[in-house]
Amino acid sequence: MRAIGLAFAAGSFAATFLVAAPRPAFQAQTDIDRAFQAFWSARDARAAAERIEPILKAGVSFDEALTRLRQGRAYDRDVPRGRLSGIHRTADGLTHEYAFVVPKAYDAAQPMQVRVQLHGGVGRQRPPATNRIRVDSLPGAIDEITVLPAGWAQSMWWSAPQAENLYRILYDLKRTYNIDENRVYLTGASDGGTGAFFMAFKDTTPWASFLPLNSDMMVLATPSVKADGDIFPGNAVNKPFFIVNGGRDRLYPAQVTQVYANHLRTLGGTVVFRVYPESDHSTAWWPEERGAFEAFVHDHPREPLPDRISWQTDRTDRYNRAHWLVIDRLGSVVGESRLPDTNVLRRGRELDFGLRIDSGVDRGRRVYQVLPDSNAFHLGVRAGDRFVAINGAGIRTGRDIVDVMQACEIGQRLRFVVERGGRIVLEGAFEPTELDVPPAPIFPRRGPSGRVDLVRRGNLVEASTEGVRAFTLLLSPSIFDFRRPIRVVANGRAVFDGMVEPSVQTMLKWAARDNDRTMVFGAELAIDITK
Fold first, then answer.
1. Are 370 and 468 members of one domain?
2. How many Å apart are CA 134 and CA 402, to the nearest integer?
3. Are 370 and 401 in contact, with CB atoms under 8 Å apart?
4. Claim to verify: residue 487 and residue 372 sit in the same structural domain
5. What is the pLDDT of residue 42?
6. How far apart are CA 336 and CA 419, in angstroms?
7. Which of 267, 439, 451 is nearest to 342 (CA)?
8. From CA 351, how far away is CA 395, in angstroms rounded?
9. By residue range, what is the domain housing residue 458?
């Protein structure tokens, strides 16, 4: 500070005023550099948020902050490579370990693709030790960082702890390694593939694509699985899927899973469904499939700020965000839209033999119902019969019954051996009835939910809402022009039309949360549908 004396000649009054001297430009820049360095070195999102204020006090302009956030942190070239491990504790107190592999070819100057791979058998009572996780189960031919989290009964892939776990893993990796945020994809086999479906439906923002293998999204509909909240298949419409199933997989046969893959395709998503007819519940096909798998990943980077978003949620404390849309409050409003239900499966016409078995009784070999006047009824099959053989093939599980019956041609002769007191033989022709299968919900609904569909054209956002009272738009200078008015129309009614002032503080707030150079938001626009 320097003193400037001012004398007033009209009297004896004199005063001394203290005026702050302007800081040299190099000093201001140093303060900004230091503040950003502290921001980048924060260990997690909360710590980063606590380091926003020094950046603001350093006097950084919006344009400079934007440039710095898009450039990101400086990465050290001398970092560990090879097989490594990490650990952190989620909000519920669970400790999560994970393994990851950084190729020797990693170059800090070049963003690198990331594969997150979820293992099967997630129902085990203890998490697998990271040194026992196979890092070469699906060996690739391209340079990428591979992440292998650990899941177990207390933290299944379709639970809140795992959603937080995957977010934390990616956040940690971005602090040390130059990650290509738009080439982070999620895959897994068996339970791991089901986990990939869950994240697609509940927490899609970080992921470029989903590649579930030897799995079935319908596992999430099973009450005993206890998936976290309701499942909304329409949420996956913006993300591409690469699905592989085996024709002889006793858990998730391709002819069953294909029905639901087709449904995702009808919603407008990009879905590649690959079948290995002779394959069982294994990835023995990987050497043959690897090239197509990796080509799919390469051809489908993430669009961080999509022009179209459709998102549905049953809660607002989590799973309520998709890219630049955040659903804040649920509830119906007058004049809301009636959006098509993406949870309804329309199967059309199907052949029905009339046989019903329960996979939970006698390994699925015992009949619990035969429809009246059906093909099975006329062949003499009755409730309580226990299958022994069909056309000479022994029946060990209900899956065997399905496999044999689905391979039959119309009019083919059938020979059943069943136990009904003693063994009896039933013979006749395969002549199932063609029926119109009525539309039916895919996943159960346990409570209310809300949905917002967005379409952006320049500075115009058109929203259709159902069951949502309020939402927030995160406005990025990459797709919105803050020099011009922004207009938001919801359900055919203008709910905002005016200028939006960009904010350095808002930009840093979301940068602290997302740690993503390609999703930088300069303003928040809160929309209340009730007003």
1. no
2. 33
3. no
4. no
5. 96
6. 58
7. 267
8. 22
9. 325-345+442-528
pLDDT at 17 over 50: no
Counting Cα atoms < 13 Å in the Cβ hemisphere of 236 gives 29
How is residue 510 written in tokens? 């979301």
Same-domain status, 358 and 416:
yes
How confident is the model over 269-319, as pLDDT tens digits?
Answer: 899 999 998 899 999 999 999 999 999 999 999 999 999 999 999 999 999
pLDDT at 473: 98
Q: Is the dihedral of CA 192, 193, 195, 200 positive or negative?
A: positive
My answer on whether 142 and 236 are in the same domain is yes
Convert the pLDDT of each residue in 58-100 to its tens digit: 999 999 999 999 999 999 999 999 999 999 999 999 999 999 9
Cβ pair 271, 240 in contact under 8 A: yes
Higher pLDDT: 394 or 398? It is 394
pLDDT, mean of residues 380-384: 94
- φ, ψ of residue 454 in degrees (nearest 5): -120, 145
Question: Averaged over 442-468, what is the pLDDT?
Answer: 97
Bridge-based pairing of strands 413-420 and 386-390 is: antiparallel
Reported pTM? 0.86
SS (H, E, C) 84-142: EEEEEECCCCCEEEEEEEECCCCCCCCCEEEEEEECCCCCCCCCCCHHHCCCCCCCCCC
For the segment 101-115, the average pLDDT, to the nearest whole number, is 97
Largest CA distance in the chain: 126
Residue 396 and residue 448 in one domain: no
436 band by pLDDT with thresholds 50, 70 and 90: confident
How many Cβ atoms from other residues are within 10 Å of residue 469's Cβ? Answer: 19
Query: Rounded to 5 degrees, what angle do the CA atoms 322, 325, 330 make?
Result: 100
Strand, helix or coil for residue 229: coil
Residue 265 CA to residue 45 CA, distance in Å, equals 36
Instruction: Indicate the residue among 406, 437, 468 that finishes a domain.
Output: 437
Among the listed residues 297, 216, 312, the one whose alpha carbon sits nearest the alpha carbon of residue 267: 312
Give mean pLDDT, residues 10-21.
Answer: 37
Q: Are residues 173 and 251 in the same domain?
A: yes
pLDDT tens figures, 174-192:
999 999 999 999 999 999 9
Long-range contacts made by residues 281-289, C-beta under 8 angstroms, separation at least 24? 281/190, 281/214, 281/246, 281/249, 281/250, 281/251, 281/252, 282/214, 282/246, 283/137, 283/138, 283/189, 283/213, 283/214, 285/244, 285/246, 286/138, 286/139, 289/244
CB 376, CB 401: distance < 8 Å? no
Q: Is residue 143 part of a domain?
A: yes
pLDDT at 437: 79
Helices (H), 203-285: 254-266
Q: What local confidence, expressed as pLDDT, does residue 360 receive?
A: 73
393 shares its domain with 488: no
Listing DSSP states for 354-373 in one string gives: -EEE-TTSGGGTBEEEE-TT
- Mean pLDDT score across all residues of the chain: 92
Q: Are residues 389 and 458 in the same domain?
A: no
